[in-house]
C-alpha cells in the first residue's frame, strides 16, 4: 500500500469540503486531515503535519490570494491552489508567492489526485494553465530587495512613520532612510512610481508584500 498523503483544504464552500472528505475516504493513499474557511483559521487551528494544503484562490474574507500562499509556505506547508479562475496574473502571482501548483476546478478528480501526489512528492504540479500564465504574466517584475530593505518597506508602506519602521526593522532611522531610498531607486529603475508613501504601498501590494484592501461582502 502506498504511503498515506495527509491533505489540508482551505475553502469557504462547506459542500465542497464535505465532497472532498467523502472522495478522499475512497482513495487508498489520500486523507483529508484538516479543513478551514480561511488561512487564518487554518493556521490558528495548528493542523499538525500535512503533506500539502489545497487552497481556494478566492475566499469570502477578501484575503489576498498571493499573501495567503505566502503565509502557508512561511508556515512550512506545500500549497496547491485549486480555483475556478483562469486569470493569468492571479495564477502567476500565486506561483511567485511560493505555490507548488495550480489546478482549475474544471479538471476531474483524477487530475486533482495526480496533482496532489506530485506536490506531496516534492514536485510542482505544473498544469497547462500555470505554464501559460507564467508566459503571459502581465505583472511588472518586482525588484530584488534585501531582507532589511523589504522589512523597512513593508513597515513604512503599512502606515508606520520612518522612525517606527526603523525600530520595527531593528535599525537606526538614518539606516532605514538609506534602505528606503534604495527601495525607491530600485522600483524607479524598473519604471514603477515609488516617490511617495502611497506609491510604495501600492508597489508593495502589487508584489504581494502587503494585503490588498478587503473587498465588500459578495464575490
Task: Give a verbal description of the structure.
This protein has 219 residues and is of the alpha/beta class. It folds into two domains: 5-135, Rossmann fold; 147-206, Arc Repressor Mutant, subunit A (Orthogonal Bundle), CATH 1.10.10. Helix content is 47%, strand content 12%. The chain has helices at residues 14-25, 39-44, 65-74, 88-96, 109-120, 128-135, 147-157, 162-169, 173-189, 197-206, and strands at residues 5-10, 30-36, 52-56, 79-83, 102-104.
Short descriptors:
alpha/beta; Response regulator; WalR-like; Sig_transdc_resp-reg_C-effctor; five-stranded parallel beta sheet; 12% strand; disordered C terminus; 5 strands; transcription; Arc Repressor Mutant, subunit A; 219 residues; Rossmann fold
Tell me the count of domains: 2
- The CATH homologous superfamily name of the largest domain equals Response regulator
Q: For the residues shown, what is the average pLDDT?
A: 85
Please give the CATH class of the largest domain: Alpha Beta
CATH fold descriptor of the largest domain? Rossmann fold
Radius of gyration from CA coordinates? 19 Å
The low-confidence parts are 214-219
User: Taking strands numbered 1, 2, ... along the chain, how are they ordered across the largest sheet?
Assistant: 2-1-3-4-5
Q: Quick one: how many beta strands?
A: 5
Percent of residues in β-strands: 5-15%
- Classify the secondary structure makeup into a structural class: alpha/beta
Which range best describes the helical content: under 10%, 10-25%, 25-40%, 40-55%, 55-70% or over 70%? 40-55%
Quickly count the helices: 10
What is the CATH architecture term of the largest domain?
3-Layer(aba) Sandwich
Amino acid at each position: 500500500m502506498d504511503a498515506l498523503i495527509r491533505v489540508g483544504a482551505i475553502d469557504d464552500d462547506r459542500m465542497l469540503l464535505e465532497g472532498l472528505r467523502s472522495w478522499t475516504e475512497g482513495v487508498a493513499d489520500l486523507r483529508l486531515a484538516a479543513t478551514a474557511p480561511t488561512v487564518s483559521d487554518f493556521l490558528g487551528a495548528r493542523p499538525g503535519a500535512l503533506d500539502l494544503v489545497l487552497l481556494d484562490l478566492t475566499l469570502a474574507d477578501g484575503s489576498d490570494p498571493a499573501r495567503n500562499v505566502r503565509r502557508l509556505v512561511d508556515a512550512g506547508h506545500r500549497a496547491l491552489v485549486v480555483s475556478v479562475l483562469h486569470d493569468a496574473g492571479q495564477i502567476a502571482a500565486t506561483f511567485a508567492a511560493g505555490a507548488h501548483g495550480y489546478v482549475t476546478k474544471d479538471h476531474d478528480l483524477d487530475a486533482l489526485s495526480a496533482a496532489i501526489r506530485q506536490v506531496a512528492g516534492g514536485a510542482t504540479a505544473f498544469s497547462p494553465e500555470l505554464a501559460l500564465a507564467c508566459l503571459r504574466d502581465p505583472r511588472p517584475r518586482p525588484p530584488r530587495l534585501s531582507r532589511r530593505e523589504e522589512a523597512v518597506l513593508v513597515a513604512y508602506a503599512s502606515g508606520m512613520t520612518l522612525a517606527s519602521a526603523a525600530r520595527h526593522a531593528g535599525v537606526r532611522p538614518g539606516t532605514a532612510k538609506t534602505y528606503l531610498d534604495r527601495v525607491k531607486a530600485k522600483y524607479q529603475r524598473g519604471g514603477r512610481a515609488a516617490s511617495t508613501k502611497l506609491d510604495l504601498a501600492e508597489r508593495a501590494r502589487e508584489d504581494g508584500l502587503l494585503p490588498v484592501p478587503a473587498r465588500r461582502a459578495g464575490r
